[in-house]
Amino acid sequence: MRVLVLNQYFHPDLASTSQLLTELCEDLARTHQVTVVCGRPSYDPIERRDARGLVAEDRHGDVRVLRTWSTSFPRRSMAGRLANYGTYISSSLAGAMRAGRPDVVLAMTDPPVIAAAAALTARLRGVPFVYVVQDLFPQVGVALGKIRNRTLIRSLEALNRSLRQRASAVVAIGRDMAARLHTLGVPESKLRIIPNWSDGSAIGPLGGRSKLRTELGLDGRFVVMHSGNVGFSQELDTLLDAATALRDDPEIQFLIVGGGAARPSLETKARARLLANVTFLGYRPKNELSDALGAADLHVVGLRRGLEGLIVPSKMYGVMAAGKPFIAAVDRRSEVALVVEETGCGIRVEPGDAAELATTIAHVRHEEVRLAEMGRQGRSRLESEFDRPYATDTYRDLLQSLVRYPESH
Question: Which among 327, 326, 331, 325 has a CA at the least distance from the CA of 350?
Answer without folding.
Answer: 331
